[in-house]
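Running co-folding for phenylalanine.
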Amino acid sequence: MALAVFLQELDELARAAVEQFAAAVDGETLESARVAFLGAKQGRLKAAQKQMGNVGPSDRPLAGKRFNEVKQSIESAYAAAQQRLTGGSVRRPPDPTFDATLPGIRPQLGKRHPLTQTMEELKDIMGRLGFTVADGPEVEDERHNFEALNIPREHPARDPLENFYLATAGVGDPDSVFLLRSQTSTVQIRVMEAKRPPIRIISMGRVYRPDTADATHYPMFHQIEGLLVDHRVTMADLKSVLRLFAQTYLGSEVHIRFRPSFFPFTEPSVEVDYQWKDNWIEFGGAGMVDPHVLQAVGYDPEEVTGFAFGLGVERLCMRRHGVTDIREFYKNDVRFLQQF
Ligand code: PHE
């Protein structure tokens, strides 16, 4: 193909394209002009590009240069028309398969675990009674889990079958034998070691005991521990606090009962039962802090007294929401978790 003929065709193409883009009156006519000239498969510009292959090799640089100029002017004519008709945004014909009335895909929003929600609420209730939150480690030494709580070496609670001891060196030295804490009472000691009275704290978290899992037991569960040490603290204070606590969390119809019991670190000691809908249910233990425990952390039992309690978080949550199997909390089944 002669160069002159090719150049003439290019000129003709440019003129026709500029004319049609300028004549476009809406998105639709603009789009059909775009397909006619700039279409990637059947467009006239594409056809011209193919024709360039028929131009003699020595003429090709000139043909290519001119082709590029024409291509640019057509593209800018298109851009100008687009700008004129749509104010800049590309408006393609609507997708006929798109149905705006169909329901969308709802994003899955997570939420906090029911036990976390429960602990937040308990923290709130106790916060209103002036208790702040203290924390302690889940891997404990024997001194905080037993010794300082007045639980001597020969006590059955220290039996290896009752605890998750860690396989570490140093057996016989209470500061270097470690275990997963079996109670949150460990935090009582940690707080009293670090601070002078008055003390008014709660502590919440996981505890571990090698129990076989069933509807009411699990080798890991949560406790809420309370400790108040001050001048002239009595059993009546303990009962009032636990009653207020239960009635705020479970409802004003809840009654409280103390049954005599024994814990090495409280004297006297009680089991705490709550009555709810004609049933008495045990929620944990409590008592007046044993003078030996106060002494061991350097407090003077003649000067201050205190009470302590430890309740099961799962039990409270189960009672409140009517959950009948503790294992539900740990299965991670969203059908269960979603309900809270
Ligand atoms: N730590 C005891 C338990 O786990 C409960 C308790 C706490 C009892 C505080 C008395 C005082 O069974």
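Result summary
The CA atoms of residues 166 and 179 lie 5 Å apart.
The pocket of phenylalanine is lined by residues 183, 185, 263, 266, 284-287, 308-310 (CB under 6 Å).
Job closed.
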